[in-house]
Specification:
Elements: E1 2-6, H1 12-21, E2 25-29, H2 32-36, E3 40-43, H3 48-57, H4 61-69, E4 74-77, H5 79-84, E5 85-88, E6 101-106, E7 117-121, E8 130-134, E9 139-143, E10 148-153, E11 156-162, E12 165-168, H6 179-188
Parallel strand pairs: 1-2, 1-3, 3-4, 4-12, 5-6
Antiparallel strand pairs: 6-9, 7-8, 10-11, 11-12
Length: 191
């Protein structure tokens, strides 16, 4: 399986390392041609407004939108969650999200960089807690009825799934634990 990692800005290298460790062929995606060659996509953390602008300047916005509409499995972490949400409640007027998962999110909802935190997460389907690293993380403000919440922090959803779209408010690539990526690959390529 060939899994692309959007490599326009953000923590894409760590995702590639985790994917490679799981036996997936991880590739950087910066062009529509690279996107066309992958079976799934990871949209990493970073700065969501910057990534949004780079999606336009790279020519990737439309091809990603089309692939998502066709069922491309995608894992969005932190900024990736923001970009995949149905609505960004505090986004800039020129910021557009893909609407791939029926969630409304608030950027940096947990606060600024100094408010970053870590938490042990009880994740549906995992036997042991997962160490979540939250850096300027988004907060889910509304959950659509077809969205499955897989983990919570203080009453807020932080890991959600709708079909082949999985989003995390935290950075699973920073935990030294490959189970979230492993679950994504299992869901993405389930027979």
């Amino acid at each position: 399986m060939k899994v692309g990692v959007l490599a326009l800005q953000g923590a894409f290298a760590r995702h590639l390392k985790v994917l490679d460790g799981l036996g997936a062929s991880g590739v950087e995606v910066r062009t529509p041609g690279e996107l066309a060659s992958v079976d799934a996509l990871v949209m990493p953390g970073g700065e969501s407004t910057t990534i949004s602008m780079l999606l336009d300047s790279s020519g990737l916005r439309r091809p990603i939108s089309e692939r998502l509409s066709s069922g491309l499995p995608v894992l969005g972490t932190c900024a990736g969650m923001i970009l995949l949400a149905a609505r960004v409640t505090d986004g800039r007027s020129d910021q557009r999200s893909f609407g791939a998962i029926d969630l409304d999110v608030q950027r940096n909802g947990y606060g600024r960089q100094v408010d970053s935190f870590e938490a042990q997460l009880a994740v549906a389907g995992l036997d042991e807690p997962f160490h979540g690293v939250f850096i300027r993380a988004p907060v889910v403000e509304r959950i659509g009825e077809d969205v499955e919440v897989l983990a919570w922090v203080d009453g807020s959803p932080v890991l959600c799934r709708q079909g082949t779209v999985v989003v995390a408010a935290f950075h699973p690539e920073m935990s030294n634990d490959d189970r979230i990526h492993g679950c994504f690959l299992d869901w993405a390529f389930a027979v």
